Amino acid sequence: MKLENKLKLARVAQGDLTQQDLADKVGCSRQTIHSIESGKFVPSVELALKIAKILNSKVEDIFYFSGELS
User: For the CA atoms of 19, 53, 15, 3, what is the dihedral angle to 10 degrees?
Assistant: First the structure.
């Protein structure tokens, strides 16, 4: 299983929020947002919850597993 995300889609749907705008709102760097969007970094539960709240979404609408359970 791999953790996937729809962060970029959710971010753009919120009035074309930039990576920097989102980073400022959740208290992380723009590079962290970029790394999450590109699948290179898995956010902590706390950061995932902050992101979901800022984007008016459920965590599971942004982050999800792909593939089969082992």
Answer: 50
- pLDDT profile of the chain (70 residues), mean per 10: 95 94 98 97 97 97 86
Q: How far is CA 22 from CA 1, 16, 55, 70, in A?
A: 27, 10, 9, 34
Which tokens sit at 24? 């400022």
The C-alpha atoms of residue 28 and residue 5 are separated, in whole angstroms, by 18
For tokens 């705008």, what's the residue? 21
Give the separation between CA 51 and CA 1, rounded to whole angstroms: 22
Distance CA 43, CA 60 (A): 13
